[in-house]
Structures are given as C-alpha cells and as structure tokens.
Specification:
Elements (H helix, E strand, L loop, with lengths): L2 E2 L5 H7 L4 H7 L1 E5 L1 H10 L5 E4 L5 H12 L4 E3 L2 H7 L8 E6 L3 E2 L3 H4 L6 E6 L5 H13 L4 E4 L9 H7 L8 E3 L3 H8 L5 E5 L14 E6 L16 E3 L12 H14 L3
Parallel strand pairs: 1-4, 3-4, 6-9, 7-8, 7-11, 8-9, 10-11, 10-12
Antiparallel strand pairs: 2-5, 3-5
Helix pairs in contact: 3-4, 7-8, 7-10
Length: about 270
C-alpha cells in the first residue's frame, strides 16, 4: 500500500545519496527515473527496493506504481520538491525507483552465454561517454547480444545518462563487470569465444569470415585499442567509409558492426 514520504524522510535521504558514484558503490544501489525504466525494472524481475512518485502525473506513472504495489515494492507518495531532489533531469517525469546493482561478476559469464552454439558478447573496454555507452547497450539488445562486458575504464553503467540512453535494455541484457583485460581474455578463451576488435582502417567487416562464438571489443574513440596486446585480439574489422568522412562515432560504428554480426547469423 503506497504511503507518504517527506523531503527529509530517511528513505528519501538515502535515495538522494545515490546521485554520486561513491554512495552507489557503497550501497550497491542506483536510481532510475521515468515510468518506462521503472516498468522495465519491474518486468525484468529485478529487485526494486522503493518507488517514489507524485500523484496525478499521468496514466503511465499510475500504472508503474500499481505494478510496484502488486509486487510488494514499497511505494512512497512525495511532493514535487521531493521528486525534483531525486531526479537528475531538468523535467522530472514524476517517478523514481531505487534498484540494487544488477551486474554480474566475470566468473558468471559462462552461465550467461550459450554453451555449445553461436554467441555474441559485446565488450565496452574503454567507453567513457555515457550517451555512447547507453546507445550501445540498447543496440546490444536489438541485435541479440548475449552479454555485455564492461571494463574498469568505461563509464559507470549506473550513471543516470547511461541508464536513460539504454531505454530499459540494461534490465534485459546481462551486464558483466571485469577489472582487467587479461582476466577477461582468460574467461573468454575456455568458452571458445574469439575477440574481434573494431578498428578504423581494418578489413571490411563484410569480407571477413566471422567465428560463430565472438566478442566485439570497442575502445575509446581517440585512442582505440592500441594499448591491448596484439596476440590477445583474434581479428580486426572495420567499416568502409567515404574518404573525406570523419571517423564514425563509436556508438554508430558499434551498432553497425553488431548489425553485421546479426545479419551473418548469430
């Protein structure tokens, strides 16, 4: 049953702290905003700890609150000032939820991908732009990626801009965190997953025979993947462009490559 909570409520104060990465890591919780993301979390089966909402903010907000209440999630009715303090957008959508971290440790990767059939893993090795990271998570869902591995130098997947850009995909595609390139390679090798690096000027993706079990590795737009040992990359692929064109944004390039992977058969 929904209950009221004020600006200084302990529940609200604890949720507000999650705006900063330090407090998110300490509590292993993050905030999501808007009825679409809240419903995506609820429908995914993720544990939602609390929902904060403003009455009278539309049918979508009411539906999300009703769904949370039916699942036994604590729902707190708050005023506009309070929802604005919880929101990280200029125009709050009237509902915010608190959710425990949903990422998996690297040792669970084997359980997240098919054992003896084609698989695609997306690796965000050094993606520091939140919009790019969120778009790539969304594309990963669209092109049937089995898992997304995120490195320590990439943007925090629980950053509010990342979350909004995923459009809920973060709750539908497993996210795996790894701490070092060597440990990721060591986890992929026994699974028969070969690493494929996206690299400007590399062989045309359309002309390269792709392994059935593969991990597409994307790096920083400025420095690429030059810091990785050459012997840890099985293949390099690129996207042909008009000569005068600037290099593609990493989110665009990664999405095109994922489409090609899907088109060639998972």
């Amino acid at each position: 049953m929904p209950q009221a909570a004020g600006f200084h409520s302990p529940h609200v104060r604890a949720a507000r702290l999650l705006h900063t990465k330090k407090h998110r890591v300490a509590a292993r919780c993050f905030l999501i905003e808007g009825p679409a993301l809240v419903q995506a979390a609820l429908e995914s089966g993720s544990t939602v700890r609390a929902v904060f909402y403003v009455d009278g903010r539309g049918a979508e907000v009411s539906a999300a609150v009703a769904q949370a209440d039916a699942l036994g999630v604590p729902a707190f009715s708050v005023d506009e000032r309070t929802i604005e303090s919880l929101s990280q957008t200029r125009a709050p959508q009237g509902i915010v939820a608190q959710v425990p971290f949903i990422d998996h440790p690297l040792d669970e990767l084997a359980a997240l991908v098919p054992a003896n059939s084609p698989t695609t893993v997306l690796v965000l090795h050094d993606i520091d732009d939140p919009g790019n990271a969120g778009t790539l998570l969304r594309s990963a869902e669209a092109f049937a990626v089995d898992a997304i591995c995120i490195g320590p130098n990439s943007v925090d997947p629980y950053n509010d801009k990342v979350l909004r850009a995923t459009m809920g995909a973060i709750f539908r595609v497993p996210v795996v965190r790894y701490e070092g390139w060597e440990e990721l390679v060591a986890a992929l090798a026994p699974l028969g997953i070969r690493t494929i690096a996206a690299q400007a000027g590399a062989s045309d993706i359309r002309s390269v025979p792709l392994p059935e079990r593969r991990a597409l590795v994307l790096g920083n737009e400025r420095s690429g993947l030059r810091s990785l040992p050459e012997n840890s990359i099985a293949l390099q692929v690129g996207i042909p462009q008009a000569r005068a064109a600037e290099s593609l944004n990493v989110a665009v390039a990664g999405s095109i490559l994922l489409y090609e992977f899907a088109r060639c058969g998972k």
